[in-house]
Specification:
Layout (H helix, E strand, L loop, with lengths): L2 H12 L3 E2 L2 E6 L6 E3 L8 E3 L2 E6 L2 E3 L14 E5 L10 H20 L3 E11 L2 H7 L2 E2 L5 E2 L5 H9 L4 H4 L4 E9 L9 E4 L9 E7 L4 E7 L7 E3 L7 E9 L11 E3 L13 E10 L1
Parallel strand pairs: 3-13, 6-15, 8-9
Antiparallel strand pairs: 1-6, 2-5, 3-4, 7-16, 8-18, 10-14, 11-16, 11-18, 12-15, 12-17, 13-14
């Protein structure tokens, strides 16, 4: 049996089938919701709305990895190694990781063309975050793009082609993975797209130094079905869709959040991860 399969089986034997952590939603009280996002290493400053924390049942996704479909559940969990040696080397990430991610997303989604446009490193280690100028984990339920900001990202990034590209289907697909150690703190949880109602989506502005974006904050719904993948490793990837231009019933949004894991071991190592963002054209 390959080493990867052996490790996956070991994780299945160790981790519980469900846990009940607390996740942070938003109360939609009608106030304007927005986030100021500064330069590298700065902390996000959030204003408006009220945090709404709920204990949820979260399912171990490892026993179900072959069941998840990108256009049905909104995500896929895949074994996927990388040739990147140092994820903190931006030049290496762009030279090595970007082409790897283009190929992965083409394979998982069926897209004909994939454009990687951004990556974000995150850590739960405040000292490392400040020293390396990388971002903090995000312990609130959200989806990264909205009905407006999805197409707007195409206009921002490929303005000369945007009018033609927006006539056909496109999606924004992201990939998340640990960059060094297996995840022991603040893992990423993901919500089955079929359990997410449009009524749960609240527009939240992101105000950058040079542009305005939008994400969706998410309100609580007891129907949400949550998954996490215990102790994700560097050779595993979570592929998930945060926008799809088609409205034919397929998954369009995938709410997700970091959360405090009640099964984290004592003296757990802080989570370190990378997320990649892509435009996928069909």
């Amino acid at each position: 049996m390959p080493a990867l399969a052996e490790r996956a089986l070991a994780e299945l034997n160790i981790a519980p089938q469900t846990i009940e952590p607390t996740v942070n939603y938003l109360v939609n009280d009608g106030t304007e919701v927005f986030t100021y996002t500064g330069g590298p290493g700065s902390l996000d400053v959030r204003t408006g709305g009220k945090q709404d924390s709920h204990k949820v049942v979260m399912h171990n996704g490892r026993p179900h990895v072959n069941e998840f479909k990108l256009d049905v559940d909104g995500f896929r969990f895949v074994p996927h190694d990388t040739k990147v040696q140092n994820f903190l080397d931006e030049a290496e990430v762009k030279r090595v990781y970007y082409p790897e991610m283009e190929a992965l997303i083409k394979a998982e989604s069926g897209a004909k063309r994939v454009v990687v446009f951004d990556h974000t490193l995150r850590t739960a280690d405040d000292e490392m975050r400040a020293e390396r100028k990388i971002r903090e984990v995000v312990p609130r339920v959200h989806n990264d793009y909205t009905e407006w900001s999805g197409p707007q990202r195409v206009r921002d990034l490929v303005p000369d082609e945007a009018a033609e590209l927006l006539r056909r289907r496109f999606a924004i697909i992201q990939v998340w993975r640990p960059i060094r150690h297996p995840v022991e703190t603040f893992p990423l949880a993901i919500c089955d797209a079929r359990s997410l109602s449009p009524d749960n989506l609240v527009v939240s502005e992101r105000r950058y130094p040079h542009r305005i974006g939008q994400t969706y904050a998410i309100t609580y719904n007891p129907e949400h079905r949550w998954y996490w993948f215990p102790r994700m490793r560097r050779d595993e990837a979570l592929v998930f869709k945060v926008y799809d231009s088609l409205t034919d019933g397929r998954a369009r949004w995938t709410a997700h959040t970091a959360f405090h894991d009640p099964t984290s071991p004592p003296h757990a190592r802080p989570r370190e991860s990378i997320e990649i963002r892509t435009l996928a054209f069909f």
